[in-house]
Sequence to fold (387 residues):
Amino acid sequence: MFKYYCLNPISKIGLDDFTEEFTNTADVNEAEGILVRSAAMHDMELSDNLLAVARAGAGTNNIPLDKCAEKGIVVFNTPGANANGVKELVIAGMLLASRDVVGGINWVEASKEDENIAKTAEKEKKNFAGTEIYGKKLGIIGLGAIGVKVANVAKHLGMEVYGYDPYVSVDAAWNLSRDVKHVLNVEDIYTECDIITIHVPLLDSTKGMIDQDALAKMKDGVIILNFARDLLVNEKDVVKAIKDGKVRKYVSDFPNPTTAGQEGCIIIPHLGASTEESEDNCAKMAVKEMMNYLKNGNIMNSVNYPNCDMGVCSQAGRVAIFHKNIANMITKFTACFGDEGINITDMMNKSKGEVAYTMMDLEQPAKQAMIEKLQAINGVFRVRVVK
Fold:
């Protein structure tokens, strides 16, 4: 029986997918799996029982990834599960920025006591006039699950779409409209596009990528949308660019004191994935990932360990080893089993940066002494008996 703990409320539709081999526990320290959304885990004491953390969402800034990797704890996320919800809000943000819908609504609210509001509106509406998005050039930085969906919708809306992603996946490329212009230099997005939306993960290389220098290359009156992470944009530079007339509108899904209430900023209270459908999809994917890992040792959509799938074990035993990605580790592992006369029927080794993951199917179950011998090898973080 596997035990899981929910750090945040998780959609019941997802939790209902757990089989009878899994049970919810009220004690986080006895859980082998943790399901989380936005709860901060950096200051948590991670129990030795913990094997997996599944984030029902894409971002994992709230989880100590390196600490988990060193303890042999696999951290999953759910890429693409909330993509449609975010895509729809990006399109809404584009429309809100192009046409001053928000300003018009606020005017109506402020004028609600005017008995002649309909007549007055005809005189005032010119103050909220905007532009259509049809025929405009949209630049998408990052062609992952969300970026591809935004690109395809924008093409159907009659926009000219430019996409930049030097690491676009095969799946994304297949799903991307062939009419999207795939550029090889992000500066082409800056110089050519009327509207720019960013959909990349927050890394050291992407932090603050939309800054004063990038803004200087953009068209006057550019619209910038940020539904990925607030720190991707140097928002102080953007606010200044709005005041200088360089940027027409900045739309962000991440409220903070820098942009909240600022002229030219449309700030949404982090609603991108806040739909019933997105929360259900994320929960279902997170539960599926956790079950497959805890039952079979298979890893899919981990952010701190490589993907590794050997299906359901049909042999007597299966062992998973978490270790440093250094030379000669496989030789040491196989030697341990060979010395005990245990035959390895199948094996898979995958690496991701400085860490690696090895699974071995065995003709005999691994004994405790064997596990301790493997654990004692320099560079091994954890050894887990899957079966």
The mean pLDDT is 95.
